[in-house]
Amino acid sequence: MKIRYSDSTNEIEINPSRNDLLNLSNKLLEDGAQITATIEENSKAAPYERFLSGIKVKVLPKELVEFQVTSNDRLLIKGDRHKLSMLCEVLLSLTEDWSIGEYPTYKHLHIEHLTFDYLSSNSIPIVVVYA
To answer: Number of folded domains in the chain?
Structure first.
């Protein structure tokens, strides 16, 4: 899984495989869970500015889900367990086969406050690109 971040626009893009999405969905309900991201040597984060090194989960009762970037370049996903499980369902929906005949479907999902009511208005917008 690659995670790119733009300081100037305060946006994150996640490029997971199917297994990455399944793993992330399992880990999202574990307080303190960590996932390492892939950073390929000599690769560019463009159009984003840099890569993040992984994901850390923090379960906080009665809190909306929030995405933040930590000082050590990790994506922090925090929130109430029930609200995190709603996020899991959305991520798992990307793993379903939406192919039409012989043409595979390219999946692109924006996860932001205005789209999902379980997200905090302070949350950084996330784009999940899954092919």
So the answer is: 1
